[in-house]
Amino acid sequence: MKIAIIGGGPAGLYAAILLKKQRPDAEITVYERNRADDTFGFGVVFSDATLDNFEKYDSPSYRRITQEFAYWDDIAVHFRGTVHRVGGNGFCGCSRRKLLLILQERARELGVTLTFEADIEDEARFADADLVVLADGINSRFRDRYIEHFQPEVDLRSNVFAWMGSTRPLDAFTFIFQETEWGPFIAHAYQYEAGRSTWIFETDPQTFKRAGLEGLNEKQSADRMAGIFGWFLEGHQLLTNRSMWRNFPMIRSKRWVKDNMVLLGDAKATAHFSIGSGTKLAMEDAIALADAMQRAPTVDAALRQYEDGRREEVEKTQHAADVSLVWFEHVDRFWDFDPVQFAFGVMTRAKAITYDNLTLRAPVFVSEVDKAFAKQVRAKGLDVDVERPVAPMFQPLRLREMELANRAVVSPMCMYSAKEGVPGDFHLVHYGSRAIGGAGLIFTEMTCVSRDARITPGCTGLWNDEQEAVWRRIVDFVHANSAAKICLQLGHAGRKGATKLMWDGMDRPLEQGGWDVLSASPIPYFPDSQVPREMDRVAMDAVKAAFVQAAERGEACGFDMLELHSAHGYLLASFISPLTNQRSDAYGGSLANRLRFPIEVFEALRAAWPSHKPMSVRISATDWAEGGITGDDAVVVARAFAEAGVDLVDVSTGQTVRDAQPVYGRMFQTPFSEQVRNEARVATMCVGNITTSDQVNTILAAGRADLVALGRPHLVDPSFTLKAAAWYGAEAVFCPPQYLPGKEQIFRNSVRDRQDFDDLKIKAKPKTRAELKAEATKPLAAE
Ligand SMILES: Cc1cc2nc3c(=O)[nH]c(=O)nc-3n(C[C@H](O)[C@H](O)[C@H](O)COP(=O)(O)OP(=O)(O)OC[C@H]3O[C@@H](n4cnc5c(N)ncnc54)[C@H](O)[C@@H]3O)c2cc1C
Ligand SMILES: Cc1cc2nc3c(=O)[nH]c(=O)nc-3n(C[C@H](O)[C@H](O)[C@H](O)COP(=O)(O)O)c2cc1C
């Protein structure tokens, strides 16, 4: 077999090693345009898990690599004169130059031919090769030559960065967030061998310009960075090696394979440096390719296996890198945070590290985070213990005169079980049991302001006395038997009205018994949905009046809070999104115009709703569709509602148009809540695939939301909050006297269960290399 590898970076060399081990008879040649030791960059970083993989696949190179490594366990966050350190991370650093020399030596030893100073122009010269590996890096010539086939997508990020080195020793992966007269600068730094560390400097484009960095040469930029970070460098030099300021390109390629050619490493996909995974991805690609070549009967099948099997892992890493880079791009959102909360945000930014996870590794740090959180609650006038605080989820929140006992919320969820808008026994049991289950706040399902405002024939309403009486009974039950507050969500279905019950076909038009539907513009939801009537002023007045009357009935029922549903493509949302609002009057066109009617309804409700009771608005912070609402628009929307007197923005997303492309995942809507909260400076509630109390605490402690709503988890577990309270030892959680023996038991057992769980986790976690090294070098205790 003949294999040609273009590019002698980590991807190309490691692929050569693994393939040669598998097929000693194969003729494998690596073509590299540079000289053997002519490399850019300073150190590379690997996690312990990546090293375990290297050990498994090629132990000789692993051994040589690890002999050269610097190990560290801690992450240190420097911000506003403070430093917070968190241990147990298990990272290793190594010089990129040494790594490449080790891989070259190992490849040679195995019989791979290495051809340096060979700049490959054309792959036609490898016509007789069975496999051509395109490992030619981020600016891959061959990926771009077949751009139509590989379809790379290059997302050039807004922040600028430069890679430098230093002689400053470091004992932790170090993040320094530095305020300057021009704006914030960030240094990501780690040691990779004795007396050498990598320094990546990052800033936003405006700060870059203001600081006069444009057009400076490498030496001048290094001097400027040494000026800014001089207090930390303690006289150590900054070194340069192709250290130009650049924008990071996030690259994703639709295809990785063409005939017998395959993309590997940066050529195929990149991952932002803030999660330190470029070299790791490149070498793990080589592992995946070698595995596929081992298993599959033909090269063709192997390449297909490589692409199919590896894509998910790469996309996961890229997603984590995306989330992380966005955090750094928007660091100004958190710049006024308490430093410990800021550090918590840095640690948890990419979702892998959580509140519980940190509690296990860095209990003192988490206890400081809890204290800072409790202090903020106390500063808002609530009498909470700041010395021995409960976890953030169990901290109270006050909105106007309504005080919530904790921050867990039952999200609004249609039960499609009402008759002519009248809730039934199911609703009493449903809301009652969730209130008893301990959530601080319960939302009603979208309750419709008139008969023709309903989504389905099973939706609840509040336009007549019979409905009001049943809702009053539910509210009375909640108040009498729990500590929960209950919020009435009022809505109008708009163009999604007159549709079937969820289990008969979500959003599908009713075949019989439907009613006329309204919207901002006459655009049907499905092509075969009813064409809605474009609302005129008379219709707007009628709808507004219906909202006000329903709110007055809501007050008569005793609801504690009112939410205006302006999300998910329903009537008010249809005004806000440009995809559903194509009006040419004062209610269409600019975002300000599109907001006019929803804000008018909100103001009418605010005037009718008692001033001591809070109001929220649910918005879709993105349409997940080309040309639709974006996170930046959501900030404008939130500000407009805040000016109109909203106390909380309930940040959901999507459901506006059929062809949306939502990016699902754990806590997938939380970034929008974070943006709205910290840019519009308004309290937010986040929701969406949040399933554990650990996630709830992580979100709250990092300042990404003020309340956390859970929908589907509450459908199967009314006592989600009570159970979480037992886990975190939040004794004060309410439990009705009838259920106290159950509470006592779960609180008692939870202490032991949690201890067992933590022990198991500690036992299951292998020692990091840094810990093993520390143990090995520890002097033996005198017997
Ligand atoms: C300037 C710079 C500095 C960096 N510094 C660091 C760092 O300090 N730490 C870190 O973790 N990561 C660093 N990275 C990122 C990291 O290098 C990559 O993520 C990783 O090297 C990807 O490995 P690769 O083998 O896919 O690509 P590369 O390492 O880029 O290797 C590709 C190779 O292909 C060669 N090549 C390209 N075209 C041809 C051709 N036509 N013919 C022959 N050869 C060709 C190139 O010369 C290069 O050696 C840096 C990247 C850059 C651009
Ligand atoms: C059965 C069901 C009904 C829903 N009904 C409503 C509703 O009436 N009003 C609303 O704003 N959201 C509604 N939603 C959306 C939820 O409030 C929530 O935003 C969504 O389910 C995502 O949260 P989760 O991942 O915790 O379930 C509904 C969701 C479900 C599953």
Task: Characterise the protein shown here.
By secondary structure, the protein is α/β, with parallel strands linked by helices. 41% of the residues lie in helices and 18% in strands. It is built from 26 helices and 30 strands. The strands form 6 sheets. Strands 5, 6, 10, 11, 12, 13, 14 and 15 form an 8-stranded mixed β-sheet that branches. β29, α22 (693-701) and β30 (707-710) form a beta-alpha-beta unit. Flavin-adenine dinucleotide is lined by residues 6-12, 31-34, 40-45, 96, 118-120, 135-138, 141, 163, 198, 242, 265-267, 278-279, 282. Residues 411-414, 445-446, 489, 502, 565, 618, 652, 687-690, 710-713 line the site of flavin mononucleotide.
Bound molecules: flavin-adenine dinucleotide, flavin mononucleotide
In terms of DSSP E residues, the strand content is 15-25%
Number of strands: 30
The gyration radius over C-alpha positions equals 29 Å
What is the structural class? alpha/beta
What would you call the shape? Answer: globular
Number of helices: 26
Instruction: Identify low-pLDDT runs.
Output: none
